[in-house]
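ok new one. same drill as before - structure tokens go in, u give me an amino acid for every spot. 572 of them this time. try not to just spam alanines like last time pls lmao
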């Protein structure tokens, strides 16, 4: 069989139903092979390789299988890079395939910049943002390399891999029955029973315990085990921003921490005597740059699958536990591991509730209120994607999950993510309704993918939060550059198009919302099975509060609390 046919058959056998890409000369054999097997797997044409890469990420986040994107050599490969980086930093298992010039056209060891048309050495470009990358020049190695790439993408902390395949190798005829397979490496994780005993021992001694949950819980597919465990032990839970959807409708969830996180969540961390961190990187936006101010009085147990994260110490006496949450979470809920009757968090829960009542919603602005109202109109099994900027934070702060999954570009923070990720999430979720929150800046970075939604009539509901400015940077300029709004507002260079006209050009139904009184009018657009473009207008001077100012401790955000209230709450 032809090697490109073998590649497609491999993906089919792994249960991958949809892939994303853009045509190019060096992937024509692969494109043809996808077309031949179109009854078993769908290859979706995106309109930019970055869009295809983000779509693969959205597919991976919802399917719990690798997302696949392909592109031709040279500019096709470079256009994938931002999506590859997102997959790497946000732990999305993806397999990227780049075509390459025929092996006999390549420059080889010659000291040339380029010999073949669109030739480019892609491996050195992506080696720092992939878990594995290789050029396949030996056709008989294709099974080994595919199996290895798949295993590496899915094992441990998930992430992207890349196979660069010359065109002549793609069209080579191979004997599939004679190909060598790949055998994986053994893991060096701790035993689940040992980690469970350490967790329960620490809990039994704590008076103010707290669980910090990160995106690793959802990525591991153990959300139901986590929710069961929390309901059993009744310990307050806070999250990183990308994990705001993990504990819906729970009295034990107190919001996300960090620079733009809930004031009460940051205070709970500061007042805790034990923090059990599950699948969270504890990055600087959560801990503050000076980590000596983070959870000063707390013992820290860090549970992660990526041992390299432990090289960045948050607390000098932290205990680092290397284990996959897929192994740990089922063990934590076993009957033989239980806290005795003396373990009582009720007084601590009361303090957390008092903090929440005193501080919740105090920083809400109109965008928060509208996002909150919109969230109540959205089906509980929908998937929500966000872009990067103020729209992302408003969703994290004010969208009230009721079973919806929310996808972020959180670690890499790539504008232009939401729209193509929504396409991938639709196919990865098996056809669920998708809500794509976007800002007017981020939407324009991959606006061409509206054509995919229009062409395939995907029921993606685009909710554009339009303040006609780059709001996050505009706010930064207000704070630190004396309101010199260079390239962030209309007066100094930033403009936006008529999105209603654009929606009409793509033949996507359009609705506009100018205030809180209009929100219920958009419900029919959210309820049907068609795509929709909903534009919500705000003034350009929008804000995200609370916000951590430079050189401040994480639990004392801007605008600064009245000191009497701050002191009272910190002394509870």
């Amino acid at each position: 069989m032809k090697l490109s046919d073998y590649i497609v058959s491999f993906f089919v056998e792994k249960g991958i139903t949809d892939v994303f890409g853009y045509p190019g000369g060096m992937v024509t054999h692969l494109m043809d092979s996808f077309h031949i097997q179109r009854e078993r797997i769908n290859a979706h044409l995106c309109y930019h390789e970055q869009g295809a890469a983000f779509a693969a990420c959205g597919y991976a986040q919802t399917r719990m299988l690798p997302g696949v994107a392909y592109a031709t050599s040279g500019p096709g490969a470079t256009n994938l890079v931002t999506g590859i980086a997102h997959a790497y930093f946000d732990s999305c298992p993806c397999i990227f395939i780049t075509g390459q010039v025929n092996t006999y056209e390549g420059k080889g060891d010659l000291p040339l910049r380029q010999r073949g048309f669109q030739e480019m050495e892609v491996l050195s470009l992506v080696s720092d943002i992939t878990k594995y990358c290789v050029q396949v020049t030996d056709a008989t190695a294709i099974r080994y390399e595919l199996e290895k790439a798949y295993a590496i993408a899915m094992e441990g902390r998930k992430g992207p891999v890349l196979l660069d395949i010359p065109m002549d190798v793609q069209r080579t005829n191979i004997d599939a029955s004679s190909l060598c397979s790949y055998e994986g490496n053994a893991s060096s994780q701790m035993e689940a029973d040992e980690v469970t005993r350490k967790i329960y021992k620490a809990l039994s001694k704590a008076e103010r315990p707290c669980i910090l949950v990160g995106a690793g819980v959802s990525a591991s597919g153990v959300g139901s085990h986590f929710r069961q465990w929390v309901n059993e032990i009744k310990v307050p839970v806070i999250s990183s921003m990308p994990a705001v959807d993990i504990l819906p409708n729970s009295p034990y969830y107190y919001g996300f921490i960090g620079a733009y996180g809930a004031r009460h969540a940051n205070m709970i961390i500061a007042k805790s005597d034990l923090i059990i961190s599950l699948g969270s990187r504890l990055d600087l936006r959560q801990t503050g740059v000076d980590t000596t101010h983070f959870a000063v009085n707390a013992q820290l147990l860090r549970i992660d699958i990526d041992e390299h994260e432990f090289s960045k110490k948050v607390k000098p006496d932290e205990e680092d536990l290397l284990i996959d949450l897929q192994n740990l979470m089922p063990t934590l809920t076993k009957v033989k591991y239980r806290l005795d009757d003396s373990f009582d968090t009720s007084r601590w829960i009361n303090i957390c509730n008092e903090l929440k009542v005193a501080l919740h919603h105090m920083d809400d602005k109109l965008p928060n209120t509208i996002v909150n109202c919109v969230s109540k109109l959205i089906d509980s099994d929908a998937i929500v994607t966000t872009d990067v900027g103020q729209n992302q934070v408003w969703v994290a702060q004010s969208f009230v999950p009721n079973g919806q999954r929310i996808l972020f570009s959180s670690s890499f923070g790539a504008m232009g993510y939401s729209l193509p990720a929504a396409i991938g999430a639709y196919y990865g979720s098996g056809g669920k309704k998708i809500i794509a929150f976007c800002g007017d800046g981020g939407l324009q970075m991959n606006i061409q993918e509206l054509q995919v939604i229009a062409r395939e009539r995907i029921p993606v509901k685009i909710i554009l939060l339009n303040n006609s400015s780059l709001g996050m940077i505009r706010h930064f300029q207000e704070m630190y550059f004396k309101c010199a709004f260079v390239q962030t507002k209309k007066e100094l260079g930033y403009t936006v198009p008529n999105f209603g006209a654009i929606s009409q050009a793509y033949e996507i139904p359009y609705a506009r919302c100018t205030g809180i009184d209009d929100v219920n009018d958009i419900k029919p657009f959210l309820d049907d099975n068609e795509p929709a473009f909903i534009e919500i207008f705000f003034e350009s001077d929008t804000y995200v509060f609370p916000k951590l100012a430079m050189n401040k401790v994480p639990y004392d955000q801007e605008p600064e609390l009245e000191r009497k209230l701050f002191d009272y709450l910190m002394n509870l």
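Residues 3-177 form a domain with the Rossmann fold fold (CATH 3.40.50.970). and btw The chain has three domains: 3-177, 192-359, 366-537.
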